[in-house]
Amino acid sequence: MTRFLGRLLGIENVTSIDEIDASLAAPWAAEGAFWVFLCAAALVALSLVFYLRYQAKGPVGPRFSLAICRGLLLALLFITLADPVLRLTVVNKQKPFLYLVFDGTDSMAIEDELPDAERKAIETAVDYKGPKQAPETREVSTSNPLPGPAGPSRMDYVAALLRKSSDNLLNRLTEDKKVQIEAYVFDGDSTSRLRKLELSPLAALVGGGAVDPAHLAVQLSTKGQVTALGSVVHEVGEQF
């Protein structure tokens, strides 16, 4: 029953209801709840008197039922005019929030010159598969060879970590640790603009949902010009 009520109110993981309090918000009824309900009862009584005494046609049973129905309808209308308010104090188990903030400035496009052993260790750790190469059909002159493929940038390594198929970090956080994730990237030109990322392709339509790490990786960019970490921390604090 508690969880059903929580879902009805749009509150997840409700564990208990501590307090239920009803009140009337209309100014003329706030201090006189007793008189409001007394008047509602009087309306029901007047309806009974009218149908049982002054409407003599027909059997008593149908007239009594009609009097009760109309009396309750009048009483409900009168109480509605008093603006009733129901206040619930519930306890719910809140999942922890984790904010992922990605550096989207041009420094993340740098291709670091690393020793082969260190580069191989990083690529193994993030499961980097290398850039996707399109098939080459042009004839290449031996006198003017084309430059070799560029090495992976810092952002390439971050994207590879997000796309990692086995032992994925985001999947472990959401499935094993039951963590709620929000992802942002700061890629402003003159200020450190914080931009929220979609967690999945359907997040914009249905809201929330499971996290798709590959979809997050596609949204990363390196077009930002300012790395103002202080502004980023301040903006993150305003998100919740």
Give the helices and strands, then pairings.
Blueprint: H1 2-9, E1 14-24, H2 33-54, H3 60-81, E2 84-92, E3 97-103, H4 116-126, H5 154-163, H6 169-176, E4 180-186, E5 194-196, H7 203-206, H8 213-219, H9 229-237
Parallel strand pairs: 3-4
Antiparallel strand pairs: 1-2, 4-5
Helix pairs in contact: 2-3, 4-5, 5-8
Tell me the structural class. Answer: alpha+beta
Strand percentage: 15-25%
Mean pLDDT: 82
Number of strands: 5
Q: Note the overall shape.
A: elongated
- Overall helicity: 40-55%
Our measurement of the CA-to-CA distance between the termini, rounded to an integer number of angstroms, reads: 29 Å
> Number of helical segments?
9
Helix/strand order: HEHHEEHHHEEHHH
Q: List low-pLDDT spans.
A: 133-142, 144-149
Output the strand order for the largest sheet. Answer: 3-4-5
Let me know the largest β-sheet.
3 strands, mixed
Q: Tags for this entry?
A:
single chain, 240 residues, 3-stranded mixed β-sheet, two-stranded antiparallel ribbon, 9 helices
Structure description:
The protein has helices at 2-9, 33-54, 60-81, 116-126, 154-163, 169-176, 203-206, 213-219, 229-237; strands at 14-24, 84-92, 97-103, 180-186, 194-196. 42% of the residues lie in helices and 15% in strands. The protein is of the alpha+beta class and 240 residues long. Strand 4 (180-186) and strand 5 form a beta hairpin. The radius of gyration is 33 Å and the shape is elongated. The chain has 9 helices and 5 strands, in the order αβααββαααββααα. Helix 2 (33-54) packs antiparallel against helix 3. The model is unreliable at 133-142 and 144-149 (pLDDT under 50). The two termini are 29 Å apart. The chain has a 3-stranded mixed β-sheet. Strands 1-2 form a two-stranded antiparallel ribbon.
